[in-house]
Specification:
Elements: E1 2-5, H1 6-12, H2 18-26, E2 31-34, H3 38-52, E3 57-60, H4 66-71, E4 74-78, H5 85-89, E5 92-94, H6 100-139, H7 150-161, H8 163-171, H9 177-182, H10 186-190
Parallel strand pairs: 1-2, 3-4, 4-5
């Protein structure tokens, strides 16, 4: 592990040393920045996001973490004694730090799975609609006439774009929550 304080971090984040700091941080399993300023926190997250092209997650519980949460790709705010500023700036809010495991492993996996299925479903829906229009052109002799009334098109998109995805979003859980917590490696399988 690497533990670095704010004073040392000020030197490590200089443009001439940031690549060496990042190379050292990559060799560690965990990096802890203590006694650092809000600007330093956001600079570390930005450095990792930009140089490593990684998806970053920032977790904070107070106003001093807001800039870090806003720079990260995904921000998690913990509501607590320091106020609600981090929660208001974050993408997700949890009441206690112990709920982070369930947020990441369970809801993160389910969200990833649902988004992947949604992309495939919309591709299939649009391919079928375009195929229908294509075959209709042979029927009408490429005259440019409209195949369906606008109301049918609105109802088609309403029924096939919103309802199935709403039902899938609420009910689709490919793996039970207990299994996802017991086997955290399943989070990577979706990716």
């Amino acid at each position: 592990g690497l533990v670095i304080d704010g004073r040392t971090l000020a030197y490590a984040l200089e443009p001439t040393l940031e690549d060496k700091f990042l190379a050292l941080a990559k060799r560690c399993r965990s990096v802890l920045c203590c006694r650092s300023t809000p600007l330093q926190k956001s600079m570390v997250v930005k450095l990792v996001r930009d140089k490593l092209k990684a998806v970053t997650l920032a977790i904070g519980d107070g106003a001093n973490d807001v800039s870090m949460i806003q720079v990260a790709d995904v921000g998690v705010g913990i509501s607590g004694q320091e106020g609600m500023q981090a929660v208001m700036a974050s993408d997700f809010a949890i009441p206690r730090f112990r709920h982070l495991e369930k947020l990441l492993l369970v809801h993160g996996h389910w969200c990833y799975s649902r988004l992947a299925n949604m992309v495939l479903y919309f591709f299939y829906k649009n391919a079928m609609f375009v195929a229908l229009l294509f075959w209709y052109q042979f029927y009408c002799g490429f005259s440019g006439s409209s195949m369906v009334d606008q109301w049918y098109l609105i109802f088609f998109n309403l029924l096939f774009s919103s309802l199935p995805q709403l039902i899938t979003g609420v009910l689709d859980k490919d793996v039970p929550a207990e299994v996802l917590i017991a086997v955290p490696q399943l989070y990577k399988s979706g990716q």
